[in-house]
Design goal:
Layout: H1 2-42, H2 53-65, H3 69-80, H4 87-110, H5 114-134, H6 139-151, H7 153-161
Length: 184
């Protein structure tokens, strides 16, 4: 009986040790993979087709810096729609998307192309509002939303179309008798 008990304890201990060893190896492989991703990100060689949202975000940043707005927006969109991505990263992707839209809108508005500027201003404002709903203290999104609101063509058109208000109308004096319905 004692021998069976010792054998059972030894077997369970060895199984637990093997399981712990497997977990250590698995964690070590994760650490090595994370270090490889961090090295690629630091070298500005992030892979756009990565399964890691952080690397996809970094690829979007690199594309945006290179002036490739469409592909950068696609990468940010992948991060925004990735449920495994942390909330702060999804907000950062939405904020960066808004920045790209705002930059394109300002360039188009400065060139006099309101047809191209209007949708980009609206997309930028929507992106900043989305970020502010999730994080009302995001001051950069608040500032950029204010810039988009001030620069949007609708604001310029509203100033041009502003009509003087007529003088205050006379106040009508009612002559109708009101009967109480029995309420106090």
């Amino acid at each position: 009986m004692v021998q069976i008990r010792r054998t059972l304890i030894t077997a369970v201990s060895l199984a637990a040790l093997a399981g712990a060893g497997a977990l250590i190896v698995y964690d070590r492989l994760d650490i090595v993979a994370a270090n490889e991703v961090n090295t690629r990100i630091a070298a500005n060689q992030a892979r756009a087709q990565s399964a890691l949202p952080e690397e996809v975000f970094a690829a979007g940043v690199a594309l945006a810096r290179a002036g490739k707005v469409g592909p950068a927006l696609a990468q940010y969109n992948r991060v925004e729609n990735d449920d495994s991505a942390p909330d702060w990263l999804r907000r950062a992707a939405r904020f960066n998307s808004g920045n790209l839209y705002l930059r394109d809108a300002v360039e188009a508005a400065d060139a006099g192309d309101t047809a191209a500027a209007t949708p980009n201003f609206e997309l930028a404002k929507a992106a900043y509002r989305h970020v502010l709903r999730a994080d009302p203290g995001h001051m950069a999104a608040r500032y950029n939303l204010e810039r988009a609101l001030r620069r949007s063509p609708e604001a310029e058109q509203a100033e041009e179309l502003e009509v003087e208000q007529p003088p205050e109308a006379e106040q009508a004096i009612t002559t109708m008798q009101i009967e109480s319905q029995g309420l106090p």
